[in-house]
Design a protein that fits this description.
Chain B: It is a multi-pass membrane protein. Chain B: InterPro entries: MetI-like, MetI-like_sf. Chain B: Pfam families: BPD_transp_1. The complex is a heterodimer. In chain A, about 40% of the residues lie in helices and about 15% in strands. Chain A contains 14 helices and 11 strands. In chain A, helix 3 links the parallel strand 1 and strand 2. The two termini of chain B are about 40 Å apart. Chain B is globular. Chain B is about 75% helix and about 0% strand. Classes of the chains: A alpha/beta, B mainly alpha. At the A-B interface, helix 1, strand 1, strand 2, helix 4 and helix 5 of A face helix 1, strand 1, helix 17, helix 22 and helix 23 of B.
């Protein structure tokens, strides 16, 4: 079998020969000169890798594609993935194989841990985000979350696209007054056994619940915004584990099994197995009622002292083939027109990242059309936002959770 | 040199090349990081640290045990049910009826069957709805840990109902090759009861033909991700699910441990296969006496009854799952405990079917191309083997099965690297080849035993009448093997339609098929849309299986001798 060995040797060589070659070729555009970017972008095709699990989001991206074609002669291809990790995998494989300039992905919809990991491993192109003509509309000086993704400095490597905030929803036909603090939630679960749960760790929404609980239960949240290595993990997290120990016996299936993800949890709400759940999409519950997924009696709220919120972004891989078009697309996504349409609950319902006082009166009006929807969150609720802890906490929390509850 | 001669000379080598390059680079893409080597992530030192991290993963022993037992138990159950059913009912009308149901059942993708089963049996499922509240008094679904039970019973049930039709199909193709009817007639004439006659006279000849499909079932069941995500336990999950989570972890450093986990998964699957082989030996050794003891009946009635019960339950579960999917695809808001959705709506279908032409035709084109490619290579390799009268070497066979043994999530990373390394543009062609990597082993295992066991005297007879080897192949062997060939093609086509990750990763997401659309939408949790897509997804392979089962009857309506076992 000498052939076999030779081939394996070759493959190992493929794995190792990577990452040594460097320096992308000179760009045909200047970031300082936006006009040159737009010129370079014309006629390019942007391969935009974004989660494809929601028909409404897919339809919005289709609309963006039409606009880009009409305005800039750019073709947008929505590369639908069910987990952005697969796209990260591809970028990584391309880097490992030495493909440094002709990547197959031009734009990625990411944030948080994925961003932190890609930034740490030099898989992103940039800085470019603050050069976008529309970036100042986010009023970054007044809104630091535009420059900090889960407290990791963005440094121009990704451009804000939308906002998320942990939002609770319940079936008002079954729940009169939902719990508004973590201790109330425990008491509620005891009174309503089996009607609440959270997604299985390490699903990001499940991890968010852990972070939310930890932030609400801890007396001093300062260490959570520093890297976890600096903190006394056991001491800081002790209240969380006490709380979960008390909560788990009263969860759905007595905490012996968990839904795989936020969407799975939503199905359980639609089936009536749960009567209280949560999501990261503040206007999601209203949209899902309209889509027949949730009971018409669904109502939304946020916890009394606020809930975790974050911004989601678009980023370009270091080896993107069509960087200019990706930038023009990112800029269009930040335009008042695209942002207003995205926030429209009949289209998607994803809150804007633009600062209303940075807009002209005319631009602002497009955002005012939010009608009253009983299942939607009152607009002022979004002001009670807690910042995401440092991303290094997620891994440690997940590891500790899995050790305690993941292997009964 | 004639096309035939050239073909059979090249086919074995092309087949080996098609599989070995991707598989070896795929494996290298797992082995190297498992031992710490992945410079793109800063891993430039060989180390066992990632294996140590893996050993310390919470619940690892339980994950391994779940994968191992799921593989063995689901294979054993499906095989037993199929064997007993064949034995008790092979020459009855019930058998013909079940046979008709095969093509739609086989076409249901594993994940869709699992979704259907979960919806049927979950606390808010169809069964519970139809009994509530009038019998149970439940206004809201009860809180029962099923599916997702910690022992994996729901997972095993989901696998068994899917594998029974597969093994039945494989048996249908194999029965004529082992002269089942003749054996049965002789045994019945000697006074053996129908089931005993089958178990003693036919099964020992049939099982060797089913061995490879059974191994494939074990390999699939012990490493399944999609079924386990829906029906399996969560704390902890089976190993393959955990490996997928590690691979998809945003923390890229987890890739090292995930690669070690993928190798461990490979070992677990191999261990399950080895155990099965040992059990096979044990049964062979311990039943010799029973086979020849001359007793004409052995609980025929009881075992026949059990077979009937088991196969009815399995079929009923499958059909109700399909019914559940259909209902969901027509539902608006459908609360518990309404047994039927009210009002029925076509909205979900209208929403979904707008841009579906492309994904459906792409899937069909890729499936046909990958199946044809695999079929030509497999037939060429088998024909070469028959002509040279020397079986394929064991190492080559191992290469054939590797794509079934290595968890695809792990092996695809190396494949994408290979693609990037050679600068192969992502697109339709490379997707077809990547599908062929997974299709070819199934085509091979569906066909190999039937091909090898075709009585060589037919060929000799034809040669002695003056036919050239090429003519023997075209006029004698191919027509006689028509049924297994079509079956193998249908299986291959269904495998191709079901591929998600290779399509996504090697097509860089630019090739969208009905399956990539279905999997993406399923991750969004809208069960109505997911149901529509699952039904659309099974339409293509259902057509394939219907053709495979129906065509021979049409082609050979004047040569019914080629249609044995009917």
């Amino acid at each position: 079998m000498p052939l076999f060995y030779r081939l394996r040797g070759l493959s190992v060589a493929l794995l190792t020969g990577a990452a040594l070659i460097a320096a992308p070729p000179a760009q045909a555009y200047q970031l300082d000169d936006w006009h040159s970017v737009v010129e370079e972008a014309e006629g390019q095709t942007v391969y935009w890798n974004a989660w494809g699990g929601d028909a409404r989001i897919n339809a919005y991206i289709d609309w963006v594609g039409e606009r880009m074609q009409a305005r800039h002669g750019i073709e947008v291809v929505h590369v639908k993935v069910n987990d952005i990790a697969q796209s990260v995998s591809r970028v990584l494989a391309e880097k490992a194989a030495g493909n440094l300039t002709e990547g197959t992905i031009d734009l990625l919809w990411i944030n948080g841990e994925n961003f932190a990991a890609m930034k740490r491993n030099d898989l992103l192109y940039g800085p470019w985000a603050e050069r976008l003509p529309n970036f100042p509309l986010t009023a970054p000086d007044a809104n630091p979350e535009m420059r900090n993704d889960f407290s990791v400095p963005v440094e121009g490597l990704e451009s804000p696209w939308g906002k998320a905030q942990l939002t609770f929803y319940y079936d008002s036909a079954r729940v009169e007054s939902p719990p508004r603090t973590l201790p109330e939630l425990l008491a509620w679960a005891k009174a309503n056994p089996g009607r609440f749960t959270y997604p299985l760790i390490p699903d990001f929404l499940g991890s968010t619940f852990l972070k939310q609980a930890l932030l609400s239960l801890t007396k001093d949240s300062a260490p959570l915004y520093e890297p976890v290595s600096a903190a006394n993990f056991a001491k800081v997290t002790a209240p969380l584990w006490d709380y979960l120990d008390a909560l788990h016996p009263h969860l759905w299936r007595s905490g012996e099994s968990f839904p795989n993800s936020g969407p799975d949890m939503r199905q359980l709400m639609g089936d009536g197995q749960l009567s209280l759940a949560f999501t990261f999409s503040p206007l999601g519950p209203a949209a899902w009622v309209a889509d027949y997924q949730l009971p018409p009696t669904t109502r939304s709220y946020v916890l009394e002292n606020g809930t975790l919120g974050n911004v989601h972004f678009v980023a370009a891989p270091f080896n993107a083939s069509h960087k200019a078009a990706a930038l023009v697309l990112a800029n269009f996504l930040l335009s008042p027109r695209a942002q207003a349409r995205k926030q429209d609950i009949d289209v998607w319902g994803d809150p804007t990242v633009l600062a209303m006082d940075a807009l002209s009166e005319e631009q602002r009006q497009a955002f005012d059309s939010l009608e009253d929807n009983p299942a939607a969150l009152p607009p002022d609720a979004l002001e009670r936002t807690l910042a995401e802890p440092h991303p290094s906490w997620v891994g440690r929390l997940e590891g500790a959770w899995l050790k305690r509850y993941g292997a009964d | 040199m004639s096309g035939y001669a050239l073909g059979i000379r090249l086919a074995p080598w092309l087949a080996i090349a098609l599989l070995s390059l991707p598989v070896i680079s795929g494996l290298a893409g797992v082995i190297a990081p498992a031992f710490g080597w992945l410079p793109a992530l800063g891993g430039d030192m060989l180390t066992l640290a990632h294996w140590q991290a893996l050993w310390q993963a919470p619940g690892l022993a339980r994950m391994v045990q779940l994968s191992y037992t799921t593989g063995l138990i689901s294979a054993a159950l499906s095989l037993t049910i199929v064997a007993l059913f064949l034995g008790a009912f092979m020459q009855t009308r019930l058998f013909t009826a079940v046979r008709r149901l095969l093509s739609p059942l086989l076409a249901v993708p594993h994940a869709a069957a699992a979704i259907g089963l979960a919806f049927l049996l979950s606390p808010s499922g169809l069964l519970s709805r139809s009994l509530s509240p009038w019998l149970t008094g439940w206004q809201y679904p009860p809180d029962i840990l099923f599916p997702g039970d910690p022992h994996g019973f729901a997972l095993i049930a989901g696998l068994v109902i899917k594998e029974i039709p597969f093994l039945l199909l494989m048996s249908l193709a194999a029965l004529p090759q082992c002269q089942a009817n003749e054996r049965l007639h002789v045994a019945r004439a000697l006074g053996y009861g129908p089931l005993t006659a089958f178990l003693k006279a036919v099964l020992p000849g049939l099982y060797p033909l089913l061995r490879l499909p059974v191994y494939a079932v074990i390999a699939f069941a012990s490493s399944t991700v999609d079924v386990a995500l829906i029906l399996g336990p969560t704390t902890p999950p089976p190993l393959a699910v955990a490996v997928l989570r590690w691979l998809n972890d945003p923390d890229l450093a987890m890739r090292f441990m995930a690669s070690a986990g993928a190798l461990l998964q490979l070992l677990v699957t191999l261990a399950a296969l080895a155990s099965w082989w040992l059990i096979e030996r044990l049964i062979h050794w311990s039943t010799t006496g029973w086979l020849a003891n001359g007793r004409r009946r052995s609980a025929d009635r009881l075992l026949g009854g059990i077979a009937l019960g088991a196969i009815s339950v399995a079929l009923l579960l499958m059909l109700s799952s399909l019914l559940g999917l259909t209902l969901w695809s027509l539902a608006a808001y459908w609360p518990f405990p309404q047994a039927l959705p009210q009002p029925l709506t076509l909205r979900n279908w209208m929403d979904a079917t707008g841009g579906l032409g492309d994904p459906l035709s792409q899937a069909a084109v890729i499936g046909i191309a990958a199946t044809l490619l695999s079929l030509v290579l497999v037939v060429g390799a088998l024909e070469a083997e028959t002509l040279n009268e020397c079986p394929t070497r064991p190492w080559a066979q191992l290469v054939l099965y590797l794509p079934l043994l290595v968890p695809p999530v792990a092996f695809l990373f190396g494949l994408v690297m290979l693609q990037a390394q050679f600068g192969v543009k992502p697109g339709l062609t490379v997707v077809v080849f990547s599908h062929a990597v997974f299709v070819l082993p199934y085509v091979f295992l569906s066909l190999v035993e039937s091909y090898r066991r075709l009585d060589p005297r037919w060929a000799r007879l034809a040669r002695s009448l003056g036919a050239s080897p090429a003519r023997v192949f075209w006029r004698v062997r191919l027509p006689m093997l028509c049924a297994p060939l079509l079956t193998a093609a249908a299986v291959g086509f269904a495998v191709s339609i079901g591929q998600y990750l290779p399509t996504l990763l090697l097509g860089a997401g630019r090739v969208s098929t009905i399956t990539t659309e279905a999997v993406n939408l399923a991750s969004g949790g809208d069960r109505r849309l997911a149901a529509v897509y699952a039904l659309l997804q099974l339409a293509l392979p259902a057509l394939g299986f219907a053709l495979a089962l129906g065509l021979p009857r049409l082609l050979f309506r004047h040569r019914s001798g080629l249609l044995t076992s009917a």
